[in-house]
TrEMBL record:
Protein known as: VIT family protein
Segments passing through the bilayer: 145-168, 174-196, 208-227
PANTHER family linked: FE(2+)/MN(2+) TRANSPORTER PCL1
GO biological process, one term: intracellular manganese ion homeostasis
Protein species of origin: marine sediment metagenome
GO molecular function: manganese ion transmembrane transporter activity
Endpoints of the signal sequence: none
Membrane topology annotation: Multi-pass membrane protein
Keywords: Membrane, Transmembrane, Transmembrane helix
Subcellular location(s) per record: Endomembrane system
Keyword Hydrolase attributed: no
Membrane as UniProt keyword: yes
Gene Ontology CC terms: endomembrane system
Matches recorded under Pfam families: VIT1 (PF01988)
Amino acid sequence: MVRHRETHFTHRLGWLRAAVLGANDGIISTASLVAGVSASGVPKSAVLIAGIAGLVAGSMSMAAGEYVSVSSQSDSENADLERERSELERQPEYELQELADRFIVRGVAPDTAVLVAKQMTKHDALAAHAQEELGMANFTKARPFQAASASAFSFIVGATAPLLAVLLSPKSATLWIVGVSTIVLLGILGAMGASLGGAGITKGTARTVIWGMTALAVTALVGRVFGTVV
């Protein structure tokens, strides 16, 4: 029998979503912040201070937000598992038939479905019901600390790039250099995220760049308007 390896990407879902979100938010929010402040006409030092404050606040906010939201998901998963464990103890025969019925609906012959259900129940009843009834598997399990860490770290990495652009650019060209470098970085991030997730690179890159350009343009416009008025 010839064996072959298949490449799947679902095992990355736990940290990939948080990492891409954090990096994307770090680039866009920090670049938009420094673009808006720069457009108002303040000195470069003020732009850098605003950007650093945005990096610190944003990374902490992303970590806290991811931890709280994913913890809520984890609590819900654990509650469902506890209910399922209780049902297996109270009415094992009903749960066995329920598991077999799920295989039957998917096209398995009734006798075979019952046999498979018995074998899976003997091996690990809770895991079998968690996957078949609740759609839960080990690689999709909510991991709050992992999500928070990935989000915060990637936010810092993403936010550092616009700050470096501000630091290394002359005052007269700060806005344009931040804008161009941000668009390039968003394109790279979109391509990397799509590649790691096994999706189309063109689509992933385009949507990341378009939303980033929109955020930059709107924030720079607001900064220029208020910088003129105030």
